[in-house]
Amino acid sequence: MSFDDVAAPEPGTTYSAGAPMTMSIPVVANRGEARENIPDPLRDDVRYLGQSLGIILREAGGQELLDDVEKLRLLSIAAYGSDDNAGTAFADAIKLVDSFSVERAEQVARAFTAYFHLVNLAEEYHRVQQLLGQDSDNGGSSSELDSIEESIPVAYRQLAAEVGEEEARRRVTEMEFRPVLTAHPTEARRRSVSRAIKRITKLLESRDQLNPQGTALHEHNRHLLAEIDILWRTSPIRAVKPTPMDEVKAALNVFDEVLFGTFPDVYRRLDDFLLGEVAGWEKPVAPAFVRLGSWIGADRDGNPNVTADTTREVAALASVHALAAIEQHTKEVARKLTVSDEDTPPSEAVRALYNKLRLMAPNVGTEVASEVPGETHRAVLMMIVARLQATRTRNADLAYDNSEQLLRDLRIVQDSLVESGARRVAYGQLQRLIWQVETFGFHLAEHEFRQHSQVHGAALADIAAKGALSPDLDPMTVEVLDTFRTLGAVQKKFGEKAARRFIVSFTQDASHLAAVYELAEHAFPDAEDRPVIDAIPLFETFNDLENSVSILEQMLLMPQVQKRLAENGNRVEVMLGYSDSSKDVGPVAATLALNAAQSRIQKWAKDNGITLTLFHGRGGSLGRGGGPANRAILAQPPQTVDGRFKLTEQGEVILARYGDPTIASRHIEQVAAAILLAGAPSIEARNAAATEKYSELASALDAASREQFHRLVRAEGFAPWFAQVTPLDELGMLSLGSRPAKRGLSVNSLEDLRAIPWVFSWSQARINLAGWYGLGTALCDFALSRPDGLAILQDAFREWPLFNTLVDNVEMSLAKTDERVAERYLSLGDRPELAEQVMDELRLTREWVLKVTGDAWPLEHRPVLARAVGLRAPYIDALSLLQVRALRALRTQSDLTDADRSAWQHLLLLTVNGISAGLQNTG
What we know:
The protein is mostly helical. Among the domains are: about 235-440, no CATH class; about 450-490 and about 500-655, no CATH class; about 695-860, no CATH class. The strands form two sheets. A nine-stranded parallel sheet has the order 5-4-3-11-10-9-8-7-6. A two-stranded parallel sheet has the order 1-2. Strand 10, helix 24 (about 630-635) and strand 11 (about 645-650) form a beta-alpha-beta unit. The relative contact order is 0.10.
């Protein structure tokens, strides 16, 4: 498995027995050209990993397995080409797949899946090296986004040049980035597989330090083979569905290993830039601008596995991790703070604090005094460690009540060090600790509650009929009330920052927000016991977005909302749903509707003196509002960001963006730079002018794309047909997450289906319909309706950021489609007219997107991204053919035994994992 630049083999080429296994990248016209520009170090590492996998395959399954894998590989490469042999090779690949037994097909599928994991880890490793500046001469950046123009310094300089240094500094200090981790089931990879990948990555990293001629290299190779053997032998499929506690533990692992240390590192780099040569000497000015949120274990919309008890347990576990991390870092700071009282005399405030802490824990105080005599600053920190340990273990006599008390103590120590002249000590690791406490507190992340408006309505109806204290209340009503009691308990135990937001899914009337406060009153009859709650509307469907402002107007009339506005300085949060709006009217109309709704909501907020935060419910995939977050920020309507950006981070996106410290740091800096730039007058003027200039185009695209989308999805019998031609039903068998994939037992309409499996199923079928459908018709209709139609579209692509981002994301979706493979899936259904409609729209969309962008093939203007897609595509095709074969057996062979059906289903689920790894996105 290597990146050898060899021509695509002739169909029928056989694998030479005994030769090391390679997965070479074919050089073919158009799509294949981008694969030529591969940095040599990356090429070498993938070749090394691929050859090692070949050894393992031969050892595990014999030469025959290796031969079968290689035959399918060679045919897939040839089929991916653009010459006359491609069609023959594709047909031969189908014949080969059809000749495999189920057992052999499983082995082959696992081989390709392992390959994708190895390629992905190699690419990520080299991206990290490039970001660290260790590989700057080896082929350039691994992403078009990794440009210096997207750094915080460049963004700040541009902003300061336009608004002045003082105003730019003010905006920096008030900047907010709020990523919210969710447990939406889109991560197909098992944690056992993720751990194996991490171990292999560490070996790849250490290999660069070894002497090629040394004996250590032999030991390294042995170790690597053992780890790849484990990866190969580890079942890709989870045996049981993860519980909400499993999901929160996975997220906490990211916090422990990456987030706790990475966020303050970003603040430090920002502070170094803002202060320049006096950084570390002057008081830091960079704010702790990231605040983490979490739906994991608190989002109960459609997830019966998230209960009140679950949320309490999750909040407690998160607090333990936050306190343990802060305690450990405080120990490290104390260990290094060996300044003597003689050279660095403590202030009176520090002496008073030390005496107070010794009185609180005399035994600890005596031990500390004897251990570090004459080092009062250090002694105070050691006493603080004791208080943190007591807080973590719930020792009420010594524990801190909240993180603000800890910050007060730390700042007393910091101020004393400054007064005594130890400024660099004060603003070094101690400042880093302060930033960490400011960011995470004792709660780690705000636990945001979410529930469907209909559930609240049913609970209120039940209470109205029976009374809130009735023992005959429906169990769901009891759970709803317990949810509010849990929010109160979490808030009381860990503070208001730990839990106060209650998001109402499918907010379609102001009464849906009023229900939150009414239910809280039933849960807490005594007003003094009631927690602080902010009811947040989530507008998801097209109609909801259209009606959003009128609902918000009614919301302002609620006494509970007026009280909160008086308390919080007129701050309001509104959430926008990307997934269901796209499933409702199609990706094009949804994008335009969301953009228009933001402008209307921003105007409403301005007219009412509201400080608005828009919460973007963006998924990882392009069909759910995914794509680069920084580009999305810069495409937002004027004044809708205003220094604050909040979005959901879910599924595979969490590990992709936050699984490595260097990549996480880069992501946060890109977002922060975009937040600053979005408020620059030039950017706001550009977006406003483009929106006005292309308003007629927006209306035309909206109407045509929506009509075309509805013509498909509202066709009689569409939903069952969709389930027939994609692995939708089988996806429900995957133990991806604790949340069910469907609202019912069958799919009779799109309302029965959640947005995630809608997108996931289309991506597995290599159609990606959720990301592009309707755009082709809309572009074609507009271009042909006027003489200069195409020129207008091309101008819009250059001048209108929203349209540019939309088309770029569609082009990415198209790059991951394959017409021949898609036709194989669509042939599984009994509605040829629907299949023809899909394929016609696919071809039309590709044709017109390329005309608009001027590309010869999808992603031509983004060569690095095109390379990443192109080098995997032939091998994804191989897995897709295996999946189609399994689907065909399950759909058409009514006489399958239970054992046979189980075997085919298992093969299909294996291919789902492999295709997900190859596409690098799921739902």
